[in-house]
């Protein structure tokens, strides 16, 4: 069982908006990991009131910068030897690949199943992403 307070090595995804942990779990495909993953919901936070935290007891290969697509307030700490060795700054990614799918039924990605699902940030102010193939706006 993964301890909630200590993590020897792995990744801590913190400052997740309360209730969003499962969404992130699904986006990152954490169900496919063999290692322990702990989702801690409704943790008291001075800054946010309540927040969710995800702890992953291993390194993961997923590009965690993708998290910026969901929320740029999320923080990511990489843990090794029981201490934080790296803090990642999460910003709006310019491009997201294979995180969401295009909803346009006429989009080439709904025909050519093996194409990567690529969305590009077209309006950073309004956080609008559009499909790289058909320019359909992303929904999430
Ligand atoms: Zn499309």
TrEMBL record:
Protein name listed in UniProt: Aspartate carbamoyltransferase regulatory subunit
Domain Aspartate carbamoyltransferase regulatory subunit N-terminal: 2-90
Entry's transmembrane regions: none
A Gene Ontology biological process term: 'de novo' pyrimidine nucleobase biosynthetic process
Gene3D superfamilies named among the record's database cross-references: Aspartate carbamoyltransferase regulatory subunit, C-terminal domain, Aspartate carbamoyltransferase regulatory subunit, N-terminal domain
GO MF annotations in UniProt: metal ion binding
Cellular component terms per the entry's GO annotation: aspartate carbamoyltransferase complex
This protein's record includes keyword Translocase: no
Keywords carried by this UniProt record: Metal-binding, Pyrimidine biosynthesis, Zinc
UniProt xrefs under Pfam families: PyrI, PyrI_C
Domain Aspartate carbamoyltransferase regulatory subunit C-terminal: 95-139
SUPFAM superfamilies per the UniProt record, alphabetical: Aspartate carbamoyltransferase, Regulatory-chain, C-terminal domain, Aspartate carbamoyltransferase, Regulatory-chain, N-terminal domain
NCBIfam families from the UniProt entry: PRK00893.1-3 (NF002063)
Domain of life of the native organism: Bacteria
